[in-house]
Amino acid sequence: MEFPGIPAEFKDLKVSPNPFDLNSKELTLKNFSKIAILFKVKCTSNKRIKIEGCADILRPGNETTVPIKKQVDNVDGDALYVTYTLVGRQWHDERMSAFKCWERAKKQAVRTNCLTIPIRKSSKTREAKGKNKDEKEKDKDRSKDKRKDKTKEKTKDTTKSED
């Protein structure tokens, strides 16, 4: 069978990291099944995220990485999508093209599954923002303290002039 159906509880494709941290720079896919998996990786915006080698046929027991690069600093709310289906033995050959396989799958309206991988801001970015936030709060506290001191001084001056 060229495109065997995907079992309802199919969990033999593992994707990591999940959620995706932009410090990782690549998405790893591992096929734990006995059947090859045709996959493609897409994103919410090609202007913000670049995916190289986005489609392939992952043979049984194999693992691959897909390089992912942010194009802009703000990828807040973006996600990666791994769309996949199972493929028969005729597609296990290393010379087979994933793009041709996808064309055939589309023509035959083959059922696919999709994993959504949220993109989180890199931990370094979050740490830096956390530090900036702490510094801003400290600055606010200092400003409040200065205002209080000025208010106290004005109150003292007013009290002295009444005497």
UniProtKB/TrEMBL annotation:
Residues 124-163 have a biased composition (Basic and acidic residues). Residues 1-120 form the MSP domain. It comes from the Eukaryota. Residues 121-163 are annotated as: Disordered. InterPro entries: Ig-like_fold, MSP_dom, PapD-like_sf. Pfam families: Motile_Sperm. Central component in molecular interactions underlying sperm crawling. Forms an extensive filament system that extends from sperm villipoda, along the leading edge of the pseudopod. This is Major sperm protein. Gene3D superfamilies: Immunoglobulins (2.60.40.10).
